[in-house]
């Protein structure tokens, strides 16, 4: 579904990604793990074209994204749930969801998708008229994922959904991710919480200083001694 | 001093203030939406209104275009001017120091004023349209002022519904809260800024439709309404449209009642003194947030 070939990207003169190649197949959940500053967020940002692609190829379902501007990426079936959730704090939950379904092709499906998101997250229905900025971190994450689903994406990019949340809430967020998977969405997730994320995905890539160092099934990575020593602390 | 509750002139003054407040509220809308969304103050806002007034005047007086059509054209012309102002002047320097945007629109103010003087001369022109007065008890209310007031209220409600109900309106509110995340929603920030600028211009054009009925047109008319519009916005909390709405009525009543007890000039003196005092007490404006 999504394919990256020898992708390089960065911010101005700072290069964040070197020669990154990876693939996400339809129906899969794939994680990109790695330490802080490895370039995980940059990876999702270059897929969304929010940062410039300096080299290589990105393709979605065989169509090159190289010349697609950032605001057209969502029309290619890719929804990006950004780091720190980035909800519109002074819009209500429902207005945030409406923004998720802003693109022309999503508007005629607004009612049905809203009902779907409310069914998936009943809490959001209770809070639909509440300002998004006044909710707890876990609820905001639900709202952010719901907003991502409103465009009817084929692929969902999740950037550190557990970051900044209390341990109990982190567990709930991974349950959310599992449910999204069960709904049949293809997911590319970036996480620092390696042990947890490897339990909900099929495959993973290890990213270190902007380069892919290892890839394999979640089991392979969980059982790899280097990964265990460096990231899981066992 | 007796409180003149039984004096019909007092009540007439209060109502005049209320009606003037409606006009000020409308004038403040466009400036507020531009600031609230793009974070830029159009110092030349009232000069856009001036150009709208000239457009309506010439179409109606010289070309015989029916007044409603001339007004519609005036709104469109100023909406286009607003979009052009953003595209050619603001956009290239949007990411530089905020003071640059202030200075450049200040430059545009004097450019437009100079241009109007050159093109239209300093002559005072009047549309010469009057709808008479409405008599209510012992009071006389000029119909044009009442009309202006009603149009202002309709515009305020219409704008509110647009911002609250439509996708575009929601995007305009969203972009003021987080610009950088907008592309992930499939929204091009540049486009929303352009649309907002056209909307701000359109509101200035609507202001021109009302002012052209009430006042003489001349190249410096912007200086009469520019500062007070700006102060209404600041006192309400720059970018806060509800605050601007309230401030418009406070200002208008100060001016009207000042005129009732002394001369109208005293009304302006008191209103601006009040503004200065308010800047000490509540610099963020009536409904502005602290930052």
UniProtKB/TrEMBL annotation, chain A:
GO molecular function: ATP binding; ATP hydrolysis activity; branched-chain amino acid transmembrane transporter activity
Pfam family, one: ABC_tran
InterPro entries (UniProt xref): AAA+_ATPase, ABC_transporter-like_ATP-bd, BCAA_Transport_ATP-bd_LivF, P-loop_NTPase
Ranges for domain ABC transporter: 2-234
Phosphoprotein is among the record's keywords: no
Keywords linked to the UniProt accession: Amino-acid transport, ATP-binding, Nucleotide-binding, Transport
GO biological process, one term: L-amino acid transport
Cited SUPFAM superfamilies: P-loop containing nucleoside triphosphate hydrolases
PANTHER family, A to Z: HIGH-AFFINITY BRANCHED-CHAIN AMINO ACID TRANSPORT ATP-BINDING PROTEIN LIVF
Similarity comment: Belongs to the ABC transporter superfamily.
Designated name of the protein: Branched-chain amino acid transport system ATP-binding protein
TrEMBL record, chain B:
Membrane topology category: Multi-pass membrane protein
Keywords (A to Z) from UniProt: Amino-acid transport, Cell membrane, Membrane, Transmembrane, Transmembrane helix, Transport
GO terms for MF: transmembrane transporter activity
Signal peptide: none
InterPro entries named among the record's database cross-references: ABC_transp_permease, BCAA_transport_permease
GO CC term, one of those recorded: plasma membrane
GO BP term (any one): amino acid transport
Location in or out of the cell: Cell membrane
Membrane-crossing residue ranges in chain numbering: 14-35, 42-60, 66-90, 102-122, 142-163, 192-214, 268-287
Pfam family, one: BPD_transp_2
Similarity field: Belongs to the binding-protein-dependent transport system permease family. LivHM subfamily.
Protein's UniProt name: Branched-chain amino acid transport system permease protein
